[in-house]
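Table 4 source record.
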Amino acid sequence: MITLTAKVQAAEGKEQELEAVLRELVKGTATEEGAVEYRLHRVIGTPGAFRFVEKFKDQAAFDFHSNSAHYKAAVEKIGKLAAGESELEMLELIDSIPE
């Protein structure tokens, strides 16, 4: 399982546009066979801050996602709406409780 978080901060005045692009990215990812979880969050108390929590079946599924047309189109749009670069963090699960 591949798990990661992605952080995106909207440029001032671009919050709604960016959110719309991120929501479309969720819709496109929902059709990918190896996407296990792809959750978009708004950061409470930080206007225009968004976080994804993503899980993919394996590296091949993550690579497919990263190379998909809808992902590449979204990244291009995000680059014009975000304040700075998006940040990705790969995670290694070491313990948990069931959902």
